[in-house]
Design brief:
The chain is built from 5 helices and 18 strands. With about 300 residues, it is α+β, with helices and mostly antiparallel strands. It has 2 domains: about 100 residues, Immunoglobulin-like (Sandwich), CATH 2.60.40; about 200 residues, no CATH class. The strands form 6 sheets. It has a 4-stranded antiparallel beta sheet. It has a 4-stranded antiparallel beta sheet with strand order 4-5-11-9, with helices on one face. It has a 3-stranded antiparallel beta sheet with strand order 16-1-18, with no helix packed on it.
């Protein structure tokens, strides 16, 4: 008896709670300038959350694709404001009033060379500057920061600080964000208290920030798209795998492609002895290499077995 084909649904076990929940991964804030010089500047803040990604993309999304989606999200927000209100995002001297993202190859760069870092009087606050926060858990998984102990963090291998004019910057934009506006302007539930701030890491706008190795780093968050699965069945006789006796039928190389199902047909059938001559019920299990059963999404698992006389 041997396995001739198997169809598997796309498993969802690789997606972490961070990408399936509703916790923001980024927070960016900026202000707009009215065409009317007598009007005060207006504060805006936006969260980038998992709901801002297409669910069908999550299984195949790369790190570069993820960051491009984030950049497009904030670009669209600014364009919408311009179209709806006619406001602008540049001072008369050309200074930008928002966090400026640029692409250089597969690296995304926060370019702060022309960002206004002066305290701005707005209609809601008088200590506002463009700001950018990263979810702490996400930043650690991506290798942007590393924990040093004592609630302090250092730069990780996948985030580069690029200083201006070869001089170490003195951050001038680390004044606390008004918690009321963080929650109200960004739509966060008022039940969240100020301790929520400790879950985000602020990137100062006094230097550039380069995010590198995005595709490799993102695999730490989503899990690899390629892995082996073990097919077990009580039909065949037991055999020795490593130092254990198991009912292993076949090892399948699985590549997650987001097509709804994965079809595997071995080039050569591996036949094993049948456990017994009379069969009432055939049980088949699909497990990870760790021994845990695979948690599949919607769909059917179909295994085709071939029996032959010896």
């Amino acid at each position: 008896m041997g396995l001739t084909a198997i169809t598997l649904p796309d498993p969802t076990s690789q997606l972490p709670p961070l990408l399936k929940g509703n916790e923001a991964m980024f927070y960016a804030s900026w202000f707009t300038i009215s065409p009317n010089p007598s009007e005060p500047k207006t504060f805006y803040g936006e969260l980038f959350e998992p709901k801002d990604l297409r669910l069908e993309d999550l299984e195949t999304l790369t790190g570069v694709g993820f960051m491009r989606t984030m950049k497009a999200f904030y670009d669209k927000k600014r364009v919408t404001i311009v179209l709806e209100s006619g406001y602008k995002f540049k001072e008369n001297d050309g200074k930008k009033t928002y966090v400026d993202f640029k692409w250089e190859g597969d690296d995304v760069v926060i370019d702060t060379t022309n960002v206004n870092l002066q305290k701005i009087a707005t209609s809601t606050a008088n200590d506002y500057r463009p700001k950018f926060y990263v979810n702490k858990e996400f930043a650690l998984e991506m290798g942007w920061f590393v924990e040093k102990g004592g609630n302090t963090y250092g730069l990780g291998p996948n985030l580069v600080m690029e200083i201006h004019d070869d001089e170490m910057p003195v951050p001038v934009d680390t004044d606390p964000v008004n918690e009321h506006y963080w929650k109200v302007q960004s739509g966060i539930s008022s039940s969240i208290d100020t301790t929520q701030r400790s879950e985000y890491i602020q990137l100062t706008m006094t230097c550039n920030w380069r995010f590198i190795n995005l595709n490799v780093a993102f695999k730490n968050v989503t899990g690899t798209t390629k892995r082996s699965l073990f097919i077990y069945s009580d039909v065949g006789g037991s055999g020795v795998v490593g130092n254990q006796v198991t009912d292993l039928l076949r090892e399948v190389n699985y590549k997650r492609e987001g097509k709804g199902s994965q079809y595997f047909e071995p080039l050569h059938i591996q036949y094993i002895d049948v456990r017994k001559e009379m069969l009432d019920i055939v049980e088949v299990q699909v497990s990870e290499t760790t021994g845990e059963l695979v948690k599949f999404g919607a769909g059917n698992t179909i295994a085709t077995l071939h029996f032959k006389k010896t």
